[in-house]
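Objective 1b: paired records.
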Amino acid sequence: MTEDGAVGLRFANPTYTDQEALRRLSWVDLKSYLDQQGWRQTDRIGDKALVYVPAETGDGTVEILVPIRDDLGDYASRMADAVHLLARLEGRSALSVYQDLVTSGIDVVRVRAFGGGADGSIAIDDGVALYREAGNLLLAAACTVVDPRRSYHARKVTEATEYMKSVRLGQSERGSYVLSILSPVQPRIGGQQTLDLGEPPFARAVTLRLADALAAAKRAANRALAENAFAPFDESVALGVSANLCDAVARLAQVGQGIDIGLTWARTRPAGRPRQQFNFSSETAEVLQEAARIFRQSEPLTDTRINGFVIALDRSVDQFDGNATLVLLISEKPRRVRVHFEQDAYQQVIRAFQEKLAISLLGDIFPVGQRWEIRNPRELRVLDDQDNDDQAALLDGGVGVTGV
């Protein structure tokens, strides 16, 4: 207990004392948080305070007094009591609860690495990786809101990349090592407790999808291990599970030696669900990485710029019917790929084959069993300025699919 009566709360910003930081908390935000988390009001103490108890108990053994006047002498102490009780009940730091209370217009994604030092620090390379993969995690969720797919490649979804420009990093927190991502959400006009009945704004749709995708990914990982099957992941694509999301979660869990991901919703736009938290172990990360690999193998690469060599024609030159085999790089490995060209491209394909020249085209690459094929080849060009050694360079990893 400090001299001013506030329970020993230490915040990251040294500009404020505990007393000042606690007085900055709005009792309206505290009340909204309790309402959203399922607490219920059981009593009122005149014009001074509201009495709240958890919905699951309601027996009065645990209660929070919400001061409804900020001119009360014990306002800071009451707010401190509330913050510390919530921290204890939710199993997290008082600072993280405090930050949730002061970010009423923001959805907060909080990532906690188990492998941080006792002093709240982390190796710099690990820290960089955590921030990078946390961003990839949110971007993966944003992409699947627009277009649910098994995998997203170098060309991201425009609406998703535009959304990422609005996302901010919050202050890091103690508790192993905790980073926070802040996603501002437009306030709901017509009352704070009104739920979205139609389509939510894109920023809220992203965080809701992230929560659903994390839950689905964890269920799929458990089922995949129990059933020795990939089907649980395949069935979760519509919920936001993708190669990108699986990779991001796996790398977070590996770097963090286990990871907790928590989501708290902006109280100015109620989400209709309480704070959510998901845990992923290093062992689960291995399953997610394998799922990401299979997703990428089974996802077609659409509208892709392809560079490669024609290494075989199905028929002799004078009987060529458009069916040919190319060699190109897919996922940094040389692959033989089947393709059927339309008749107006025959002469270019034959010339490239005979003179061992590279070609460039746009096409859609589809996995077919253990092989690949190019569909809808278009904008074919023979690259006359290529060296004769380029085919060998391709086989050594030099030329391939642009952007993969």
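Objective 1b, second protein:
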Amino acid sequence: MTDTARAQTAVTTVADSTATSAPAAPATGERASLSRDAWRELRARPTVWAATITLLIMTALAAAPGILTTLLTEGGDRCDLVNSKVGPSAGHPFGFDLQGCDYLAQVIRGTRPSLVAGLAVTAASLLIAVVLGLLSGFYGGWLDALVSRITDIFFGLPFVLGATVILVAFPDHGLGAMVLVLTALGWTTMTRIMRGQVMALTGADYVRAARMLGARPLRLMMRHILPNAITPVIVVAMLNVGAVISGEATLDFLGVGLQYPQVSWGLQLNAAQAFVLDYPHLLLFPALFLSATVLSFILLGDAVRDAFDPRLK
């Protein structure tokens, strides 16, 4: 028997033994994977669909408030003090605010600052967490010690209280300043999670094998470690969006966030607190929009965590 024949015989024998010992493939022909199973589980959850639809509606309200205000309200943005604090009616389902403006139009306009703040702060915090967590967890040593000590310092600053102190010191601020302040106080948790994931994966067998094959540190981090470490951080980021929106509304309510004539849910809640017993609609509708948005992000984050956590299977 020639060497070629022996090789073909060996390959055939290995293939036959693999086919015999391997589990049967699904009837659909799809390979089982965590991401596919997680996506299938997410699609089967009614809460995921409810949260997704709610967030899509809020995104549409934030993206085109003027168009939707004109379509959904009579008179659009016109205000008349004669209508001040008038309750809901057929033509104005949310009633009117203190200035006699259609309250539905004002609540719609309050969607953009909260959603922009939540998404911008979370995206910036996620970027910081990925960079710092990846570098400190991979290299360790003095870099890890430095990042850990800085993280501990920022962990000691209360989120809302720290933002209040900073924003009071700079009274002429806007949404951009709030995003910077909330980002400076909101990156720590995701950084610690990212660092822990990277440290756990750095010693994995496949990372060691890639290192021995000559893979550079950048390739190890971006190709082999980051894709396997990022999922828990993304789940926390989704939960963080709701927390940031709540924090932004709280700062507006306390009077240290956005200022009039800007419009936000927190400012509307601040204006409604003195009239809540006589005109409850002033408090009800912005609180309802705020609660629905925050709850949707929390439900979506919890569902993604449950779907991607193999320990819960």
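The chain has two domains: 35-110+263-313, 111-259. DSSP finds 14 helices and no strands in the chain.
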